[in-house]
Amino acid sequence: MKRIVIAASTETNREHLTRILNGAGFQVFRSCASGGEVRRAVNQAGDCLVILFGALPDCLVDELAWDIQQDAQILLLARPELLVRCEHPRLFKLEAPCPGSALTAAVDMLSQMQRMQMPRREGQDKETVEKAKRLLMEQKGLTEPEAHREMQQYAMRHGIKMADYARQILETS
Against a cut of 0.70, is the pTM above it? Predict the structure, then answer.
């Protein structure tokens, strides 16, 4: 089972989600109150599941989803008016309020989906991508998510692997 990061603007909601998940046998890795905390938790946890309960005070849900999409699956638990405004293609949505059994079923489903996915970038490729991101950050003054997004978009537009594009970046500098 991958690590679970809970994010909600209020402590009451974070505690409620944690109780539901712990009661179903899941262990919560981190509980976060802001988008910044979520980003740090995802960086620390690696491949994880982020459960967002509604909006966070310091960022838009779609913005956060774009920033962490490579390292996390995201489940948004929110009222219908927020769900319709969020358009990120890898964002899984669950309407709130919902029974705890619906939440745990969604977490089970996302865990199974993760096990079926292709293997993630590891070893030399991961190191190469990280080096290229750091280089872009230094040269262009980008944040880590911006550098990642730029590399990802270029690789997708040109039909190449991100690791191959990272090697190109490193070779040309």
Answer: no
Residue keyed to tokens 């692997």: 161
Q: Indicate whether 90 and 132 sit together in one domain.
A: no
Alpha-carbon distance 93 to 91, whole Å?
6
Residues 38 and 14 in one domain: yes
Q: Which residue has the tokens 């990802």?
A: 152
The residue type at 103: L
Q: How far is CA 17 from CA 27, 103, 130, in A?
A: 11, 9, 33
pLDDT digits (tens, 9 = 90+) for 4-31: 999 999 999 999 999 999 999 998 999 9
CATH code at position 155: 1.10.10.10
Is 44 in the same domain as 84?
Answer: yes
What is the count of structural domains for the chain?
Answer: 2
